[in-house]
Design goal:
Elements lengths: L1 H20 L1 H15 L4 H20 L7 H17 L3 H21 L6 H24 L3 H14 L4 H13 L3 H11 L7 H14 L3 H14 L4 H13 L3 H14 L4 H22 L4 H28 L4 H23 L6 H28 L4 H13 L3 H12 L5
Helix pairs in contact: 2-3, 2-4, 3-4, 4-5, 4-6, 5-6, 6-7, 7-8, 8-9, 9-10, 10-11, 11-12, 12-13, 12-14, 13-14, 14-15, 14-16, 15-16, 16-17, 16-18, 17-18, 18-19
């Protein structure tokens, strides 16, 4: 019985000693937790953070508690919070480094997960510090540094959509395209509120790296989820034309029209394909040998005519469709400009031919006028709409309206 009593006494003594040794550590954790709870009220919170720092420094210096996972976890949280609050880089960075080292040790030693919440809180503080640091670096156009800061933030909070977006943006601006692609691709799998726009953003990054195959794949996936997204449709058309796949994209749009004949956007996209094919033919005419010019001119005229048919169908569904009015005016006025320029190239002794050519040009100009006016009415601050209407008035030699349109264009905000 005496031996048992003696052992019990020794155990009691050891427990009391251990508790005493952990006193500073427990104080540090308690005061830190008070700070976290009062964080929204700095005047009340700061005294607790000061006490927590004093206590954890003592606990970290005590050989009995220095290497406990709890000590490292609490220290990481306290110093991470101090770094987050310090707005001076020269003094905040040492605090951050101390916290980061402590967090690393805490994760290594806390094999049982007893300090999980403390470790998570510390990570959030460090992530917040790097977020604020990254924002300042990004605003200063130090994109490579901002990328590193945001990437640290992202590794701590891998599912935070802002963390992924900011890391991707900084990577893109620092021309770290693989990292930009990786982060934008990840963002597509999240519930990011503007995820729809990220398909276009990712496609544009691929296009920057001349990877048209993945750009088109990304756009195609985006359209499957968001079939009415105008930017995605336009990008699909542009990429398809770059790859010489205008037939494929046109077939896809026409098939979609067959399934949804009341969709004005689909008619507009079909018109856009025809317009762009016609523009390509037009650009080739000037440099083409004489034998090829007639065929290219016919190709242009045919595609512009088909484009006009598609835009007209879109406008039958929605007469106030700005883009359809704008492009309809363009494809109609284009041959008017050609006729006008051809007439002015005729020699002075061909007055009769000149008059006939100008009459033809004027008639074509007038066909475009309703659409040109409607486009300006719908968007009076559109440079393209105003410029197209200005071209009409130049063709009609209407000096009063030429001056008026020039004034409107000059009043537009400069980019």
């Amino acid at each position: 019985m005496k031996i048992k009593f003696l052992m019990t006494g020794i155990l009691a003594c050891l427990t009391a000693t251990t508790f005493a040794q952990k006193g500073e550590l427990n104080t540090a954790q308690s005061e830190y937790e008070k700070y976290v709870g009062l964080k929204s009220q700095p005047a009340l919170a700061m005294p607790s953070l000061t006490k927590a720092r004093q206590a954890i420094d003592k606990a970290a210096a005590n050989e009995k508690t220095a290497n406990l996972p709890q000590t490292y976890a609490v220290k990481a949280g306290i110093y991470g919070s101090l770094a987050e609050l310090d707005t001076v880089a020269t003094t905040s960075l040492p605090l951050f480094n101390t916290a980061a080292e402590a967090l690393k040790k805490a994760k290594e030693l806390d094999t049982k997960g007893e300090n999980k919440q403390l470790i998570e809180n510390a990570g959030v503080a460090l992530a917040s510090y790097q977020l604020n640091k990254g924002v300042k670096e990004y605003q200063s156009q130090k994109y490579d540094l901002a990328y590193k800061s945001f990437d640290f933030y992202r590794t701590i909070m891998p599912e935070d959509t802002n963390a992924i977006l900011y890391t991707g943006l900084a990577a893109l601006n620092s021309k770290n395209y693989p990292a930009a692609i990786s982060n934008y691709t990840k963002l597509l799998t999240t519930k990011y509120s503007k995820v729809e726009s990220m398909y276009s953003e990712l496609a544009n990054v691929y296009l920057t790296t001349k990877d048209t195959a993945n750009a088109l794949k990304t756009v195609t996936e985006g359209i499957a989820k968001y079939p009415n997204n105008a930017d995605l449709r336009k990008t699909e058309i542009e990429i398809s034309l770059m790859q010489g796949k205008q037939k494929e994209v046109l077939d896809k749009i026409l098939s979609a029209i067959a399934n949804d004949p009341k969709n004005k956007d689909l008619y507009y996209y079909a018109g856009l394909v025809y317009s762009q094919v016609g523009d390509v033919a037009s650009q080739k005419i000037a440099k083409a040998p004489a034998a090829s010019k007639a065929a290219l001119q016919a190709e242009k005229d045919q595609n512009f005519q088909k484009a006009a048919e598609m835009y007209k169908k879109a406008l039958e569904i929605d007469p106030n469709y700005f883009e359809a009015n704008l492009n309809m005016g363009y494809v109609i006025i284009s041959p008017a400009i050609e006729a006008y320029n051809a007439a002015n190239k005729l020699p002075s002794n061909q007055q009769k031919a000149y008059d006939a050519a100008m009459a033809k040009a004027n008639a074509q100009f007038d066909l475009a006028k309703p659409y040109l006016l409607k486009a300006v009415e719908l968007n009076p601050k559109s440079y393209d709409a105003l410029n197209n209407l200005l071209t009409y008035y130049k063709g009609k030699k209407d000096t009063a309206n030429i001056a008026k349109l020039n004034a409107q264009i000059n009043a537009l905000p400069k980019n």
